Amino acid sequence: MCRVCGGIVNEFFDFGRQPLSDTFLRPEEIEHEYFFRLAVGICEGCSMVQLVEEVPRDRMFHEDYPYQSSGSARMRAHFEQTARKFIETELTGADPFIVEIGCNDGVMLRTIGKAGIRHLGLEPSGGVAELARADGVRVRTDFFEESSATAIRASDGPADVIYAANTMCHIPYLDSIFRGVDALLAPNGVFVFEDPYLGDIVELNTFDQIYDEHFFLFSVNSVRTAAKRFGFDLVDVERLPVHGGEVRYTIARAGARPVSAAVESLAEEEHERGLTEQSTFDRFGTDVKRICGGLVDLLRKLRAEGKRVVGYGATAKSATVTNYCGIDSELVEVVYDSTPAKNGRLMPGSHIPVKRAAEFAEPYPDYVVLFAWNHAEEIMAKETAFREAGGRWIRYVPDVEIF
């Protein structure tokens, strides 16, 4: 049943038994690892693409949640630019107030705070919330929903902006989110969120964007329908070049703001590309099987030739790839990553060891699977010596390729 409209969800792909994508284990924790069925479908009624099975939120977002938004220089620049845009456009009135849902380590709100603007971040993962506080960001360690939004309104007043980045797609209970937005948002305020874009996922075959934390894969048509269902208008959309392609959605109270021409333009493009049709996603599933088969065949061939193959980027996305494709340490001996909380641990499900990125050159491998493909430009600029030493990169989206 659709988590937005209650309609029938037609499953179009099953990735099988999958672990929590951001849970990096110590060897002694393997026997207690949590698994679930990762299957995805599209609603017949509202065209919302969503997971079939929900993972309890407390299992995913907790004290030891390892992801840090500040880990990428490109993303730091992106969030600083986002903050400055809000300061120049929406936060210009007397004593403005902005709330961020899932503020992580406070990378966006730092700029807001330094500008002297009232702000509050909600972050249920205690470890990264503490990093934000240490940087001067005001944080409430909590999930955003109707009850927390009502409490914030009572203590801080209405919000001119409610913002979320790579967070809304994590939340199955959209009804409570929108009731919370209704309780907290100022009459002419905006609710702005940005998440991976369904259109780019299908076009670029970025199937690894489908994992436990990404419950919804949003499109303009599905977001517009959901917003209307909860008494809001989708008033603007903007394509973003981060994380393999995202869309920033701007939502306002019904009738409060004019609707940008960009909304209808992108919605029409989605119809033309078949993003509301079951057959499109059936073809997508065929492509996933082809890519995974090609990747495994390549890795087996390289290992048979005696080549040393490793991975780069212990991303949440890589859990889907390694577990669906059956890639373990026999095919990819280790994964290098710059996140301290992941180092010395094991990849979810596949149990490939994770080592510090600083050890990548000790010595260089022959081939590297680029699991963090969304940061390819930044990573390859950092690792030019690997290429100069004769190393080769492997990518698997939009297709399997050595480059």
UniProtKB/TrEMBL annotation:
Gene3D superfamilies named among the record's database cross-references: 6.10.250.3100, Methyltransferase, zinc-binding domain, NAD(P)-binding Rossmann-like Domain, Vaccinia Virus protein VP39
CDD domains in alphabetical order: AdoMet_MTases (cd02440)
Regions that span the bilayer: none
Highest taxon, organism lineage: Bacteria
Name of the featured protein: Methylation protein EvaC
Organism expressing this protein natively: Prauserella marina
